[in-house]
Amino acid sequence: MERLILDNISKSFKDNILFDGIKLQLEPGTITGIVGGNGSGKSVLFKIICGLMKPDTGTVMLGNKVLSKDFEYLPNTGIFIDSPGFISYYTGLENLKLLAGIKGDISEEEIKNWMRFLNLDPDLKTKVKNYSFGMKQKLGIVQAIMENQDIILLDEIFNGLDFKTQRDIKEAIVDLKSKNKIIMITSHNHEHLEELCDIIYLLEDKKLEILDDKAYEKYFGIIK
To answer: What is the pLDDT of residues 122-160, one digit of tens each?
Structure first.
């Protein structure tokens, strides 16, 4: 597994500059957090990293291979962005089997094991349209990790979740880190990130900076 490199990434929409000149290196076996307010560009940055959106300038590299040059999308990457949609009249298992069938790399039993990993019952006959919000969040995370992806991007996964669901997801993320994955998590709640991440960055004023004590005080108005 090679490191993931963001080199001089910039993105704007018309006259609105989201970020400018972002540089970042991510190593296997680490969890990197990005905190920032709504509209700061966290989701857009994730879409650029995985190849769903192109930057105005800069490159995304995996080792010495360049995104959009050596591959169209970042390979072996699991993505949870914008609360992924599912077919509402299918069960959770049926939805995951449909997604897994695209690559055909995993068996039904492996899918069931990943559901159990996040305390989802694979034999539940309830349709996804009747799932609670937390169950849908968990299902979205399962689709991002069930094919043993090397890189996992999780965008605002703790929004609106009860304490137990948050705990289940945090335990799963820590377990994935032990398997040498590159994991990135965004949140507007820094407390979740502090609990999980090896390093946290603040995305604000078009820049990405380490959330050290000085940045913490500036952004949150609190002396840590």
So the answer is: 999 999 999 998 899 899 999 999 998 999 999 998 887
Residue with tokens 């920032």: 36
Angle at 83 between CA 165 and CA 99, to 5 degrees: 100
* pTM for this model (two decimals): 0.89
Give the span between the Cα atoms of 20 and 42, in whole angstroms.
13
| C-alpha gyration radius of the chain | 18
Q: Which tokens belong to 209?
A: 């900076």
Q: Are 34 and 185 in contact (CB under 8 A)?
A: yes
Q: Which residues contact 132 (CB under 8 A, 6 or more apart)?
A: none
Q: Residue 154: CB partners within 8 Å, gap ≥ 6?
A: 80, 141, 144, 173, 183, 184, 185, 186
Distance CA 112, CA 117 (A): 9
Contact call for residues 200 and 189 (beta carbons, < 8 A): no
Q: Which residues pair with 25 in a beta bridge?
A: 5
